[in-house]
Amino acid sequence: MWHEMFAQQVPFAEKVIRTVLVYALIAVLLRATGKRGLSGLNSLDFVVMFLLSNVVQNAVIGADNSITGGAIGAVTLVVVNTAVTRAALRNEVFARIFEGNDTPVIRSGRVDQGAVRRLGLRRHELDRAVRLQNGEDVRDIESGDFDPDGHLILTLKKDARDANHSDVVRIEARLERIERLLLERG
Questions:
Q1: What global pTM score does this model have?
Q2: Whether residue 92 sits in one domain with residue 63
Q3: Which of 7, 11, 17, 144 has the most CB atoms at less than 10 Å from its CB?
Q4: What residues does the YetF C-terminal domain cover (predicted)?
């Protein structure tokens, strides 16, 4: 019994190669689905993720059902993922290939319908992001980019922004000058 649990049925090198190839395939598939596929997952996305892991399981482990074979596959996945993540941190070209670039979706209050359609964004998602930034409407947005992680990054137009600390300090200083002038005249 113990021997069967740990006896490898597939050679170590084959197990590593299988795992790396499946990792690359899944990375390409996820990259091909676009940024939208990596943002907020819905229930159908979870179904696909669960089924996908089951579909590629045999491709990773082959005919090997041993604990050792599973451990080799798991360790290989973690090592390859760590290497890819670190390579993306060090190399801008590598990061762009594996992670992608920001996609402009709003410029000067206008929605780029082509970009929104390609990304699979819905209008209510844009509107919600605008409200989260304290904007009233897409017209209040100077720029909006969809980043590779699936986040919508918005910048409000200057006249649509709430007052910040420096604005308050400037107004207080102005009020103090006005009060001094009024006291000097009065």
A1: 0.61
A2: yes
A3: 144
A4: 90-162
